[in-house]
Design a protein that fits this description.
Distance between the termini: 50 Å
Number of domains: 2
Strand content: 35-45%
Largest sheet: 13 strands, antiparallel
Strand order of the largest sheet: 4-3-2-1-9-8-7-6-5-10-11-12-13
Number of strands: 13
Order of helices and strands: HEEEEEHEEEEHHHEEEEH
Radius of gyration: 20 Å
Length: 285
């Protein structure tokens, strides 16, 4: 009998190995709140970073406690089930072990940071909490500051988007209000308020933020360009291949998110897809 955990963990490692070269990520400051022995090594003595301590993550480096400092950083983001968190080390049942550590139920976005001193898996929730396994201890952090940038806006939107299961409804649009321009919010709400004809295939036939009908396995911010009060961030999404049995080769798709400054904050105003179409066109039925 096949082992579903081995399948999903192998898939997560395949995804990580394929997308770990991107430089871009939000500039963030995390504050260490607690350090406890890891459930896979409960007898581990106290060691490593202790609260309070601030950890700064930048696109190309990390600073703070010595064990968490590095340069030449690369970032990728993937969705992992409890069985694959902490490199698959949670004792079974993994859902209960994760719950005892304070992690939310279900899939979680993991930011993998690979740099000159090793790799770090930061398991994040949408509320601004994160967990990191380090030297057989579990460190819990709170997000305390984010540097305003186009990358930060796109990263925050995608983490929130996956937390809602890629839902597109008035509540999910409202939850993304801080990342979207009022004009884009209005276009989305208008489109949702006027259901398409049942006799026609809608122009917008899938998730607008990932250009897909299935949740991606992972994403990375591959490039960014700022021109005055306008910016573009290209996001590359990875999807599971369709070969059987087991996980096939991942396929990729890029979405360009166009942002403008609104009252000093970067907001997403338009999306451009690989076929040249734009979200505003698809919403304009």
């Amino acid at each position: 009998m096949s082992n579903p955990f081995v399948h999903v963990f192998a898939l997560s490692m395949l995804v990580f190995s394929g997308v770990a070269q991107a430089r871009l990520a939000a500039g963030e400051t995390w504050r260490l709140q607690s350090s406890q022995p890891a459930p896979w090594a409960p007898e581990t003595a106290m060691g490593g970073p202790q609260p309070p301590a601030d950890w700064h993550i930048e696109a190309d480096r990390m600073s703070g406690p010595a064990a968490l400092a590095c340069s030449a950083a690369r970032h990728s983001f993937t969705r992992l089930p409890p069985e694959a968190l902490f490199e698959g080390n949670l004792p079974p049942p993994a859902e209960q072990a994760a719950k005892r550590l304070g992690l939310p139920a279900g899939m979680l976005i993991t930011q993998r940071i690979i740099c000159d001193s090793g790799s770090f898996d930061l398991h994040r929730d949408v509320a601004g909490h994160a967990w990191l396994g380090l030297d057989n201890r579990v460190l819990r952090f709170d997000l305390v500051a984010v540097t305003s940038s186009p990358e930060a806006t796109v990263q925050a939107l995608l983490i929130a988007h996956f937390d809602t299961g890629m839902a597109l409804n008035p509540a999910s649009v409202a939850a993304k209000a801080q990342s979207l321009t009022p004009a884009l919010q209005q276009r989305l709400h208008h489109w949702l308020a006027v259901p398409p004809s049942p006799d026609e295939v809608p122009d917008l036939n899938g998730d607008p933020f990932t250009d897909s009908q299935e949740p991606p396995l992972s994403f990375e911010l591959v490039s960014s360009r700022v021109d005055g009060a306008a910016a573009e961030v290209t996001v590359r999404f990875e999807f599971e291949g369709d070969q059987a049995p087991g996980p096939g080769p991942a396929s990729q798709r890029n979405v360009v998110m166009q942002l403008i400054l609104v009252d000093g904050s970067w907001r997403i105003d338009e999306l451009r897809y690989a076929d040249g179409s734009r979200l505003s066109q698809l919403l304009g039925r």
